[in-house]
Amino acid sequence: NFPERGAGYVDLVRSQPLARDAAQLWIADYIRAFENGEDLGRPQLLATRVSLPSDRAFGTYATALAVTTGPPLDSLTEVPWNQTSLDVLLEFPIRSLDARFAIDARLARLGVQTNTVLKYVAPDGTERAYQYHGDAGLVRLDPAWYHAGWQFVTLGVQHILGGIDHLLFVLCLVIPFRRMKPLVLIVTAFTVAHSITLVSAALGIVPDALCFPPLVETLIAASIVYMALENMVGARLQRRWLVAFGFGLVHGFGFSFALGESLQFAGSHLAVSLFTFNLGVEIGQLLVLAIAVPLVSLLFRRVVAERLGIIILSAFVAHTAWHWMVDRGASLGEYRFAWPAWDLALAASALRAAFVLVIIGAAAWGLTELYRRIDGSRPEPETQS
Questions:
Q1: pTM over the 0.90 mark
Q2: Within the chain, where are the H helices?
Q3: CA-CA to 9 of 20 to 30 Å: which in 66, 197, 291, 364?
Q4: Are 241 and 184 a contacting pair, CB within 8 Å?
Q5: Average pLDDT in the 270-293 region?
Q6: Res 380: pLDDT
Q7: Helix (H, G, I), strand (E, B) or coil at 350
Q8: H or E segment at 105?
Q9: Of residues 178, 167, 340, the one with CA closest to residue 251
Q10: Rounded distance, CA 239 to CA 259, Å?
Q11: Is 135 helix (H, G, I), strand (E, B) or coil?
Q12: Residue 186 and residue 216: Cα distance in Å, rounded?
């Protein structure tokens, strides 16, 4: 509670000592910095300054440093008590400019919702910017490839285990096919498909329309409904892997939405991060299958007949996914679709999309050959008259 004067303005003279205490208690004590993994301890509080809400000094490090260490606001400046900014300069002792640094700023407790914009200026002058909501945990400002890899493997596993819609889709895929050979083909088709669109989206080869994310989420729910209904009427292996491939393309875009904000923490290791995130998704899927397939098989042997069990499980899944599809479809309906302008940017986007379609076609051909080998089918000899 800062001292006020007049009609609710901050008393800048009497508030200056309190501003320093607030900076220490609410900010400095909750920020940790690390050099090559070693905690640098409590920072030294060098300066604090109450600023106007219109202040733009933090656009660059040089201007932020100059303003924070410069003279305070004029004591007669009228600053509303609930619109002030507090600029703080903290210093950590380091040993080498060539070290790898990380920061853990636990500031989410400061409000119901907190947004952090973090800019890292490397010794060579290059800048890297991060933006996130709440607490991001340990942010490696210049991560090594193995740090980025481990972070995104973990993120991929967490995403698939925490994404109930993806889990239900994978479960619907394999309920009727619990033997090794069919599982290999179905899971491979789904993996190849979502890997293509995941990488494409990460590289920016994705529509930028506002309605695209809700469209993808609606299609994901629709894919679960379709798979559940197909299980109920009877599914064939050849049709199942084709459906898994087609819907896998949609789910890949869904994975990319979770990955998009996190790619800023990859540093210069974009390829490693994409690969390891996808690897984490596959590890999560395999963990789910390793648990679900034996449990479903046991259920069908001991509790209910297989055909009846498939119908019951699929009916529950279809009921849940139907509500998702209706709700997401209603949200999608609130967006207005507009055809893009016919210009060079659209032509470039079309060329990139065509390249991705070629990759999809090649992947589908490869999976067709894999199906032929697994199925053991051979061309029938021609009948001679």
A1: no
A2: 12-22, 61-68, 145-162, 164-174, 180-202, 212-233, 237-260, 270-302, 306-332, 344-375
A3: 66
A4: no
A5: 87
A6: 41
A7: helix
A8: strand 101-105
A9: 167
A10: 30
A11: coil
A12: 21
In whole angstroms, what is the distance from residue 329 CA to residue 48 CA?
A: 50
Instruction: Kindly give, in sequence order, each residue whose CB lies less than 8 Å from that of residue 374, ignoring residues fewer than 6 positions away.
Output: 181, 182, 184, 185
Residue 356's φ and ψ, nearest 5 degrees, are -65, -40
Per residue in 141-155, pLDDT tens? 888 888 888 988 998
User: Are 140 and 104 contacting, i.e. CB atoms less than 8 angstroms apart?
Assistant: no
Q: CA 198: distance to chain centroid?
A: 11
Single-letter residue type at 138: L
What would the pLDDT profile of 93-129 be if each residue is shown by its tens digit? Answer: 999 888 899 999 999 988 888 988 899 988 888 888 8
Please state at what angle helix 237-260 crosses helix 164-174, rounded to 10 degrees. Answer: 170
Encoded amino acid at 63, one letter: T
Q: Could you report the per-residue pLDDT of 157-214, keeping only the tens digit for each? A: 888 888 888 888 888 887 887 777 777 778 888 888 888 888 888 777 777 777 788 8
Predicted confidence (pLDDT) per residue in 43-78, tens digit:
999 999 888 878 888 888 889 999 999 888 888 888
Query: Chain-wide mean pLDDT for the chain?
Result: 83
**Banded model confidence at residue 382, pLDDT cuts 50, 70, 90:** very low
In angstroms, the CA 52 to CA 65 distance is 16
Nearest to 278 by CA among 185, 174, 152, 385: 152
Distance CA 7, CA 2 (A): 14
Cβ density class 209-220: b for 16+ within 10 Å, e for less: eebbbbbbbbbb
Residue with tokens 């993806």: 166
